[in-house]
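Z., the sequence and structure:
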Amino acid sequence: MHAHGASKIVIACNSASAVYSDTDEVRGIVPFGVSSVLKNNGPQKALIAGNSTVRSGIFRKLFAQHGLPIRQRIAQPLSIQIEKGVLSGEKLENDLQRILKPLKNYDSVLLACTHYPAIETEIKKHLKPYCQLLDPVDEMVEWVQQIWPSKQDSVETVFMSTGSPEQLERFRYNSKKVFDVYISKVYAVLQDEMDFTF
């Protein structure tokens, strides 16, 4: 990514953050998720995440350092449906019911995937009314603004992906449908260009 002009990199994906170590130039979202959970006072804490994030063991390891047990649930089917632009419907409800049923009495649930806030309203229907949904993106954005403030008056936003042309077009379409973010162009990059070292 340095070859594309990046001087600092934020890894918003939990799965990618789980395998890349933080440096002075690279910050992943996982530590911000841990921080948001630690700041929450509820005794029963859980998280939902994609398959590779949970299986990496990163959250269990980091919470263990604080002596905090946390319940984890793999919610990969939710990610897949959101990527397809599915935000409601019977299949989504069935997946939510199956995934969240063991967490129905928890006080807080960390949304350890950037996709899940898109269906926050649907998720809340399956949890107790005062359960807090924790989105680490807010804390991450605040940190970036304070520690890595932009030195420019205006910043150009560039979207890049390693996906195929069809995936790039789907990404543009679903970004508007799911998050109401219009993306005029997505640039294709090769896997070997996704080097986060400086």
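Residues 165-179 form the longest helix (15 residues). The mean pLDDT is 89.

Let me know what you think.
H.
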